């Protein structure tokens, strides 16, 4: 009997610590639930689907902006199984993406990335060593002091574009695209595309046409949730996604390899040429490196190069489309901008960077172009690499963080009558530029901020200033000589761009044939 009491006592004694551990764990668990801050407010999510059915599929930024009115500057959204946090104000964007960039510099893994052959693009790479190396290589070429050396080339390319626009005004979009890619192709590979139908430019164009539609968090989450879509047999409904993925991969592989081999070949043929291109400079550096690190370095260089090309092509040509649309819809703005240039350059010269400081209205037009229709309305998605608490709200590790650039640009307090094109909002009473520059948000924020923004700015300025100096943009006319009216349509996906619209691009009357002759001789 005594024996069995002893036994029982041993069991109890042995059990006690386990019991206490259980109790404390349970207590902690309950406390955690009670104290854990709640996620930011947001619309009620359906089981499994989350909020995906309430989001405007073509223009999700419109929905996110409506939700700002209902829930505020930081909104929780669930897309199928993925937690998403949408930032709706510049203040919160700065507080999180900039000031806490240690947490918010990751990218969500987009399930469309690898199947569609976009792995090379370091803009979609997580916060990692591969990203760091690619970004460093990129930065060496495109940081502000280094990008200065591209200015004469940018001016030359802009003038080349004017000649193309004068000779073949109907295909203005194609000339914008050639200009946009030619600046970067020169800077990266020392490659000079031909004025029309260049084979490398066409590769870039095809690759983006396939890619931009699918490289959005909204699309990627669908593929992540239904990965079998990539395995459907060819006859099956829905299998086109598989064929698109293959086509996109082939196209991207060529786009990464072809211009790179061109640069390598030029190096091999004549070591002294192409000295200042990003690839040439680094290949030379590579020769001095030890064998072991060469493959990784070469991969990073290829990635950085091809990323620069795709990152400039769509953003830059879309911005020039927006500019052209604005000049057509707001003729008074166009006249004021032309008058400012004429006053500074007279009519027998074209503007150069030396005159930029004397042309504040042109810069105001550029700022308003970037703000009025942001070409990346939701920037690129960030991801939280660890959990965070902001303003009492809990943001879980792995959350996708989207900055609603479009919503910020439509903030009526900062930009009264925000949907109208009004460059004057950036000019103060003394005629000088104000300190409000949309470049603070249209290029993203934090460690992931667009590293191409200095060249982007200079390319856009040279294009816009040269166009205003030489061309008139006006409504196209129908057979009866009446203006053709139209409602602007936009492409959507990751990027946002006016579709081709009827438009009359003609040489300004005061531009005499002498100046055009000089232009032609230059290019
Ligand atoms: C109007 C022109 C442009 C706009 C509006 C623009 C905008 C942006 C935005 C919003 C991002 C994402 C930033 C973030 O994650 O917070 C980005 C990333 C990037 N941009 Fe641009 N960009 C432009 C032109 C260019 C050009 C010309 C280049 C190359 C020469 C370039 C290269 C890049 C690269 C490499 C990234 C990825 C950065 C990273 O993930 O670390 N961009 N850009
Ligand atoms: C285009 O505009 C210019 C002047 O702005 C005009 O002289 C020309 O006739 C117009 N062309 C067409 C086809 O409408």
Question: What is this structure's SSE topology?
Answer:
Layout: H1 2-35, H2 60-71, E1 74-79, E2 82-87, H3 90-98, H4 129-142, H5 144-147, H6 151-167, H7 172-189, H8 199-211, H9 217-225, H10 240-269, H11 278-287, H12 294-329, H13 331-345, H14 360-372, E3 382-383, E4 388-390, E5 393-395, E6 400-403, H15 405-409, H16 439-442, H17 453-470, E7 471-474, E8 490-491, E9 497-498, E10 504-507, H18 513-522
Parallel strand pairs: 2-6
Antiparallel strand pairs: 1-2, 3-6, 4-5, 7-10, 8-9
Helix pairs in contact: 4-12, 6-7, 6-17, 6-18, 7-12, 8-10, 8-12, 10-12, 11-12, 12-13, 12-14, 12-17
Bound molecules: protoporphyrin IX containing FE and 2-acetamido-2-deoxy-beta-D-glucopyranose.
What would you say this structure looks like, in words?
This protein is an alpha+beta fold and 523 residues long. Strand 8 and strand 9 form a beta hairpin. The chain has one domain (37-522): Cytochrome p450. The mean pLDDT is 89. It has helices at 2-35, 60-71, 90-98, 129-142, 144-147, 151-167, 172-189, 199-211, 217-225, 240-269, 278-287, 294-329, 331-345, 360-372, 405-409, 439-442, 453-470, 513-522, and strands at residues 74-79, 82-87, 382-383, 388-390, 393-395, 400-403, 471-474, 490-491, 497-498, 504-507. Helix 6 (151-167) crosses helix 18 (513-522), helix 7 runs antiparallel to helix 12 (294-329) and helix 8 packs antiparallel against helix 10. The chain is built from 18 helices and ten strands. The strands form four sheets. Strands 1-2-6-3 form a four-stranded mixed β-sheet. It has a two-stranded antiparallel ribbon with strand order 4-5. Helices cover 52% and strands 7% of the residues. Protoporphyrin IX containing FE binds next to helix 4, helix 12 and helix 17.
């Amino acid at each position: 009997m005594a024996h069995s009491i002893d036994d029982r006592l041993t069991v109890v004694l042995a059990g006690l610590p386990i019991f206490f551990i259980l109790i404390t764990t349970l207590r902690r668990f309950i406390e955690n639930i009670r104290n854990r801050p709640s996620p930011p407010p947001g619309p009620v999510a359906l089981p499994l689907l989350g909020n995906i059915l309430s989001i405007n599929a073509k223009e999700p930024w419109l929905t996110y902006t409506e939700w700002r009115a209902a829930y505020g500057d930081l909104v929780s959204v669930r897309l199928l199984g993925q937690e998403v946090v949408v930032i709706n104000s510049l203040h919160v964007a700065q507080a999180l993406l900039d000031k806490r960039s240690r947490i918010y510099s990751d990218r969500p893994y987009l399930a469309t990335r690898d199947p569609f052959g976009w792995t090379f693009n370091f803009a979609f790479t997580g916060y990692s060593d591969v990203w760091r190396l690619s970004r460093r290589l990129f930065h060496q070429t495109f940081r502000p002091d280094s990008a200065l050396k591209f200015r004469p080339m940018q001016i030359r390319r802009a003038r080349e574009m004017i000649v193309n626009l004068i000779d073949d005004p109907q295909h203005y979009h194609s000339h914008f695209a050639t200009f946009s890619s030619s600046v970067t192709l020169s800077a990266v590979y020392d490659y000079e595309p031909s004025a029309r139908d260049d084979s490398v430019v066409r590769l870039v164009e095809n690759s983006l046409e396939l890619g931009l539609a699918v490289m959005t968090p909204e699309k990627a989450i669908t593929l992540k949730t239904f990965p079998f879509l990539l395995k459907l047999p060819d006859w099956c409904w829905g299998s086109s996604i598989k064929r698109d993925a293959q086509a996109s991969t082939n196209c991207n592989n060529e786009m990464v390899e072809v211009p790179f081999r061109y640069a390598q070949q030029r190096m091999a043929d004549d070591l002294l040429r192409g000295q200042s291109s990003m690839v040439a400079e680094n290949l030379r550096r590579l020769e001095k490196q030890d064998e072991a690190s060469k493959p990784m370095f070469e991969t990073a260089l290829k990635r950085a190069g091809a990323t620069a090309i795709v990152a400039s092509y769509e953003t830059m040509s879309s911005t020039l489309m927006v500019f052209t649309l604005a000049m057509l819809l707001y003729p008074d703005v166009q006249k004021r901008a032309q008058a400012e240039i004429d006053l500074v350059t007279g009519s027998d010269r074209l503007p150069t960077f030396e005159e930029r400081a004397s042309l504040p209205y042109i810069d105001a037009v550029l700022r308003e172009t970037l703000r009025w229709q942001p070409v990346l309305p939701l920037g690129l998605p960030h991801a939280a690499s660890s959990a965070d608490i902001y303003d009492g709200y809990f943001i879980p590790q792995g959350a996708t963080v989207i900055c609603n650039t479009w919503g910020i640009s439509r903030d009526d307090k900062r930009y009264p009558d925000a949907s109208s094109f009004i460059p004057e909002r950036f000019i103060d009473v003394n005629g000088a530029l104000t300190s409000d520059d949309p470049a603070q948000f249209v290029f993203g924020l934090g460690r992931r901020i667009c590293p191409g923004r200095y060249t982007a700015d200079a390319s856009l300025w040279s294009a816009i200033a040269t166009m205003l100096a030489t061309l008139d943009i006006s409504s196209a006319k129908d057979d009866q000589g009446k203006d053709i009216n139209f409602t602007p349509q936009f492409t959507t996906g990751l990027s946002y761009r006016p579709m081709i619209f009827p438009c009359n691009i003609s040489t300004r009357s005061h531009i005499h044939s002498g100046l055009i002759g000089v232009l032609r001789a230059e290019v």
